[in-house]
Write a structure and sequence with these properties.
Blueprint: H1 12-23, E1 37-39, E2 45-47, E3 54-56, H2 58-71, E4 81-83, E5 100-106, E6 111-117, E7 121-127, E8 132-135, E9 138-141, E10 147-150, E11 156-159, E12 166-172, H3 174-179, E13 185-187, H4 201-206, E14 227-228, H5 230-241, E15 252-256, E16 270-276, E17 285-287, E18 291-297, E19 299-304, E20 307-312, E21 316-319, E22 325-329, E23 336-342, H6 344-349, E24 355-357
Antiparallel strand pairs: 1-2, 3-21, 4-5, 5-12, 6-11, 6-13, 7-10, 7-12, 8-9, 8-11, 10-14, 15-16, 16-23, 17-24, 18-21, 18-23, 19-20, 19-22
Bound molecules: fe (ii) ion (2 copies).
């Protein structure tokens, strides 16, 4: 018997009638549907991200955050956050398909009440003279450039006991958790948690470089270290720059790790700090993970999916999944420092992480 693909051609009317007949059975014809994929001329399929590259400039965001603080109290807003919404989405509050970024402001004397949720969150501090986030009873310091974690289901409230506004970048996996319909949230019985642990306790226990307390590690899947101070991060990057070339795609890049297992800080989000040398231009690549970048210090631009995104201090920009990107430090004298967070642990865990070099604007 010869085996071959069959060739049956129905009329358009017959096919239409057939498909309509399926509808009341809650059935549809697979061959008639095209999902969110793009097909190459050879017939292979690859992701076609709906999110678009975008940059949010600090010079635009800061005045709006301060204005929000005049218009809405932390009584009225569960959290006073300006959502950085990807322009391609009107129906979802997302920055990339899986990640969310926002700008949160807490004014002198204010608290944002205690709650917890299954969405994991990070805070990257932009402007502050102190203040803290109380994570499960531990006051975690928040100074500019610091990374603070509030993992899945950790109680957290924010407090500003200084005389200046505190403004930070929020990073959450909320779009992913909502997509999975696994979002839970609840309020703490009181407005604030008691300060039951010493300030900086997790730093004392788990921030001592390669040392950690002996014995059983904590039975959690996120980092037990809640605070990564910027001074340590920049120092690590600067020291590495003296001995290492770094990656052609990222320059010098270091990952914030879980000190217990060396993995990402949280199961759904990985955090990175990178240093671009004066005048550095990275090569282009793309990967199935998406990334949100925050410019700690520097002046440059990134070419993302063919769009040039100009950035300077405190700007935030997004790189959607499977979108080419490369970075340029325009300063010939100063390094540029970028913080970023991505969904790479999720893609890796599901065996969906792919990366490839792509032709860029230069060599
Ligand atoms: Fe929260
Ligand atoms: Fe990348």
């Amino acid at each position: 018997m010869t085996l071959t693909r069959s060739d049956i051609k129905a009329s358009a009317e017959e096919l239409e009638q057939f498909q309509q007949g399926l509808q009341h059975l809650s059935v549809s014809a697979l061959w008639a549907n095209q999902g969110p994929v793009s097909r190459s001329p050879g017939g292979s399929i690859e992701p076609r991200p709906r999110a678009v590259p975008h940059v949010w400039h600090w010079l635009d965001l800061r005045p709006q955050a301060l204005r929000a603080a005049e218009l809405v109290g932390t009584q009225q807003a569960e959290r006073r956050v300006l959502q950085l919404k990807n322009p391609a989405f009107s129906d979802r509050s997302v920055t990339t398909n899986t990640l969310f970024a926002g700008i949160q402001i807490v004014m002198p004397g204010e608290v944002a009440r205690a709650h917890r949720h299954t969405m994991a969150a990070l805070r990257f501090i932009i402007e502050s003279e102190g203040g803290y986030t109380n994570v499960d009873g531990e006051p975690v310091p928040m100074l500019p450039g610091d990374l603070v974690l509030t993992p899945n289901w950790a109680w957290h409230d924010h407090a500003n006991d200084t005389g200046a506004p505190m403004i930070w970048l929020d990073g959450l996996d909320a779009p992913l958790v909502r997509m999975l319909e696994a979002a839970f949230q609840e309020d703490f019985p009181q407005e604030r948690q008691a300060l039951s642990a010493a300030r900086g306790l997790s730093q004392i226990r788990y921030g001592a470089g390669a040392l950690r307390p002996a014995g059983e590690p904590p039975a959690v899947r996120h980092s037990p270290l809640m605070h990564y101070a910027w001074a340590d991060t920049q120092d690590a990057l600067d020291r590495l720059a003296e001995v290492d070339e770094g990656s052609p795609y990222d320059g010098l890049i270091m990952e914030y790790t879980n000190p217990v297992d060396g993995g990402s800080v949280m199961p759904t989000i990985a955090c990175f700090a990178q240093r671009l040398r004066p005048g550095e231009r990275t090569a282009a690549h793309r990967h199935t993970s998406s990334t949100i970048y925050h410019v700690v210090h520097g002046n440059g631009y990134s070419i993302v999916g063919g769009h040039s995104l100009n950035w300077q201090d405190k700007d935030t920009f997004c790189v959607p999944n499977w979108t080419s990107h490369q970075h340029v430090n325009l300063s010939e004298t100063e390094p540029a420092y970028l913080f970023s967070f991505s969904d790479i642990p999720v893609l890796r865990a599901l065996d969906l992480l792919r990366e490839e070099p792509v032709p860029g604007e230069w060599g």
